Predict the structure.
Amino acid sequence: MALVDVKGVAKSYGGHMGLHDLTFSVDRGQILGLLGPNGAGKTTTLRILTGFLPASRGSVTVDGFNIDEQPFEVRRRMGYLPDNPPLYPEMTVRRYLQFMAELRLVPKKVRTARIDRSLELLNLKDVSGRLVGHLSRGYRQRVGLAQAILHEPPVLVMDEPTVGLDPRQIADMRELVLRLGKEHAVVLSSHILPEVQAVCGRIIILDKGRVVAEDTPEGLRRAIRGNRTLVVTVRAAAEAAQDLLRRIERVTAADLQPGGDPGETTFRLTAEAGADVRAEVSAACARGGLPLLELRSVDVSLEEVFLRLTTEEASAHELVDRRPA
Ligand SMILES: Nc1ncnc2c1ncn2[C@@H]1O[C@H](COP(=O)(O)OP(=O)(O)OP(=O)(O)O)[C@@H](O)[C@H]1O
Ligand SMILES: [Mg+2]
């Protein structure tokens, strides 16, 4: 049994299904990302996981303890950075951590050591005497994370840990999550693709409370690569070139790209799933007398997967079908 086991969890908010049917497991050394747009069910999932919200259906176990039967045992094993950590602005950072350590029942004799360790780990030593309310957003976020690890929980749950951070702080947070992920089981949520791509070994994409895809970052990329995209640049007028490209067998779209040098036109070419049409494209250009200046495959980023998942029903179903059983 995995450290964290979530089975068939659903949540109904007065008849409205915030979450339909979610199953996953996470072990130490793994980072799971819940990815999805607003209202996807990320916060709902994390609140259920941390015992702040009862599920309408399904079960959550942590380290073998069922959340309904032994909520205290489960919570002891969880560190939670909520979407809006309740920080006390009038406390100093150290005082706040002391307060949280007491609340978490961290034994008195190790309290100071734990606080120092948290401060150290999150690079907060220099600001430990400052008022929480005077800290920048990035520092407050780190304080939020510092309180989540005080009781040394094996499981860390973070709800959109990088929201509101600047690029530098995002990079720091990323590094930190990777470091924490080595020893903890981490579940985090995000609506930013590159973020989950960079840190998560597994990704569950949620949309409107439903799982639309579940895979590794690489697996998701591969799944979508079925629809190969080519970038083609020719020295020709747009209309004639577009006409020629569209008529190539198994090409489903030739979208004109803006910009480019005068006299040159660039297209984004989409082919049928699994079709490699590069040879056909170059042959067609030669036949039509269009100088082919560039022809390359685009490595479809997870970002595009995501756009498809949430904007195109067909691709979403395609991905669901590819989900591992
Ligand atoms: N307390 C609540 N009462 C009623 N409906 C709720 C409540 N909390 C969430 N919902 C609904 O459940 C669905 C999922 O919401 P949730 O907050 O889990 O999404 P999210 O993925 O965290 O979104 P965001 O990116 O905006 O944080 C939404 O349709 C939301 O309106
Ligand atoms: Mg949320």
